[in-house]
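Aim 2 progress update. The chain analyzed this quarter is reproduced below.
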Amino acid sequence: MGKNSHKRQILGALIAATISCGAEAQLAQNLTIHPKALALGNAVTADPPGIMAIHYNPAGLTKLDGRQLEVNLMSVYLDIDADFIAPDGYEIFGIDGLETDPLTGKQKDPVANTHSHTNNVALYVPGFGILRTPPGPALAPSAGISINPPGSKLTFANAFYLPLAAGFYRDKDDPGRYQPQATALQRTTYLSPTVGYEINDEWSVGAGIHLSHMGIAADQYMRAPNLLLGVAEILQDAFNCESGDEPLQPWLALCGGNVGPWDDIGALSINVQETLSPTYALGVMWEPTDWFSWGASYTSEAEMNMKGTFEIQYTDDWSGFWQSVNGSVLGAITSAILSLPSGAPREAGNVSMDLVYPQHFQTGISVDVHPKLTLNADIGWTDYEQWDAFVFRFDRNLEFLNAARILSPENATPNTLRLPLGFKSQWNWAFGAEFHASSRLDLRAGVEIRDSVIPDDQRQVMAPFGGANLYSIGMGYKWDKNTEIDMNLSYLHSIETIPADTSCNLNCDNITNIIYNPYAGLDVKTSLRVVMAGLSFRTRF
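Predicted structure tokens:
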């Protein structure tokens, strides 16, 4: 009875940590790179910002004269909330989650009808994992250099920046700690040698190679509000385990530890990374007149085999329960036949996962509709359909994969796991406006419409967003003939309402469900707010 439940929950917790980090990628794209781009809603393919044209459209490097240095600093503040609401009739296998537990004197499900909140940012440090930053905004730096030799049509550039960054951590007693307590997803481009070439007065092209590090890590507590663990709790009540006696000892023992659908199983940590992940970028710009320009850019996909470790530390109750089961006559025989858990307090090993960093295409226009006003519009596409499934490989045969193979033979072997995701590719729109207040001052505003790539049945607390709009304002100031300063203030807000039993990566209560569902049977509402303030300094030297 407990075998499938135990193994499914380990399986689900391990993979859910990585699924959710992957899901964060779509929201975190292009939020920590350049203030001008954010101020214009990322509608800059035909009007690339300075040296970070390396990322947005390499052809834009031809706009840079001489030798230039650029330093950017982005401050990011996030606010994540979740409500876990018990609907009418909330129960697991007939056990009322809202009734008082006679052992603790508290509500049986401590999460039901509670609120989760965090505004703590976490970063991924290569070689280390999750770095929990002090409370408050986090800082994301970037910097680059460009060289355009006198009289040359070639402009060379290189930059360090974060094309993708997301992460947070919660208090250890926060009800959202099961998905997860801490997580970080980060792609760091540490070298990006790029060249732009001006073909003539109208056409420019560019190309670059981006060498990046990719890291994913998560720490989370585990619980399993599952029908099978509901059965376990009822059997323990029938055995009167509160008395401390084992009525069927030595034939069968079930009282070595208190287990139930809302009790903690343990804590999981996972950390995988790819130290060298190359991509290439191509760009083109066309400027037939001085009031109109068109641009297009393409960034290739990157196939990665991310490697790392996982560790599961079980609670004393969970380990003690299985140790007592295996210490009885019938339990030992059943365990040998069905490969039941041994009750080890800890499991750890190496894991790798195949992941494709998706290709991206964007095109747009920039039009001077008035000497004082420029309007930009972009449309972009990211190939998240590549994330049809994640594939995990372990360095040994694992017990919990035997259960997964029985439940889903097309997706599991004793040392591999394929997790279907079904993500979808999306076209996103972006719009920006720039008011030329004077010869030195530009005022900017923009919006980017970000549709969710996550199917409704895969929504979760760890990636608390569906569709979201990015709203921004900013300014550019020409300090002197050699120096320019850009600033932005941006706001993104996403709200998701997930009724009970509608997302099988969060709150399904089906007995055959293979995915981790720590909030089974609960209605969940999530809210994510992100505020970004950036400053860019670019000068000739």
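The longest strand covers residues 264-289. The longest helix spans residues 2-28. These observations will guide the mutagenesis experiments scheduled for the next reporting period.
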